[in-house]
Amino acid sequence: MLPRWVWDFIRATAGDGGYAEVRGWKLDAVAPKYCSRPSVSDVTSPCPTKRDVYLRRSLKVRVESEILSLGKAVHEAFLYPHRRRGEDVERLIYGFRRALKQYQDLKRHWRLLECVFKKSLALSLIADEEQVPVSVEPCIPAGSIGLSDYVRPDLLVGFIPVDVVLIHGNHGLERKELALAGYALAIEAWIGHPVDMGVVIGVQASSEVKFTWRVVRVDDSLRRRFLDARDEVARILEYGDDPGTPPSCPSMCPYRGVCLSENTLRSRAGL
């Protein structure tokens, strides 16, 4: 379900570069420093200081935002045809258009969601023809590498984790690259199969919908960055320490309004 050029690029570069020393099955290399076990989304949250994780997990603050809702809708639109592989195309299209009606609050984004669905449908038909093994949101055990009980990449194509993200400006792709390292480590710990590549599919809504395909080499540098971020988030969760707001809040963070409001109140109070 990946474009032909992506497969060609993966095959051409699979043997390049150094061998990863940090593997999921090497428990001494991936052992966590804290008992708290964050999820992959916690580790790769958009906030530089991870205060969004502190607000959500420690203080139980819940927020709703259009960006958050749209990101989930794009995710579901892309996965829809893969969840129903083998169904008649007309039935798939009819079913998706019915499912689209649940997003009444995102009606102005329906065109975007339809574009995402159609692109994914075309890829799923190719995967059917070529008999490519694709798992949708597989549950991969991850407790042994200091994460939540299970992690769930959007897709697993063979042993290649694939994640879909709605891009806002330049944000989104780098966070998902880090997530691929977490999925790779979890797969390696689970079945002992090396995972050196992953793919991030970026969806960007502008005057026309654009798709970005980023093939990511899951090397030692990326793996160590993920493990460092995992330990930092686990420390925040374990001790309940407020990490504070970053110098600038990412525009796509759903907790941005919470932090900005707090800063305004502190400023008025002279704190």
Question: What features would you describe in this structure?
Answer:
The chain is an alpha+beta fold and 271 residues long. It has a single domain (46-238, 251-256), classed as Lambda Exonuclease, Chain A (Alpha-Beta Complex), CATH 3.90.320. It has ten helices and seven strands. The strands form two sheets. It has a five-stranded mixed beta sheet with strand order 1-4-5-6-7, with helices on both faces. Helix 8 (173-191) links the parallel strand 5 and strand 6. Helix 6 runs antiparallel to helix 7. It is globular, with a radius of gyration of 20 Å. The N and C termini lie far apart (54 Å). The model has no long low-confidence stretch (mean pLDDT 90).
State the distance separating the first and last CA atoms.
Answer: 54 Å
- CATH topological fold name: Lambda Exonuclease, Chain A
Main sheet strand line-up: 1-4-5-6-7
The ordered H/E elements are HHHHHHHEEEEEHEEHH
Name of the level-1 CATH class: Alpha Beta
- The structure class reads alpha+beta
Q: What is the 3D form?
A: globular
Number of strands: 7
What is the overall number of helices?
10
Largest sheet: 5 strands, mixed
Compute the average pLDDT. 90
Keywords, separated by commas or semicolons:
13% strand; alpha+beta; 7 strands; 271 residues; Lambda Exonuclease, Chain A; two-stranded antiparallel sheet; globular
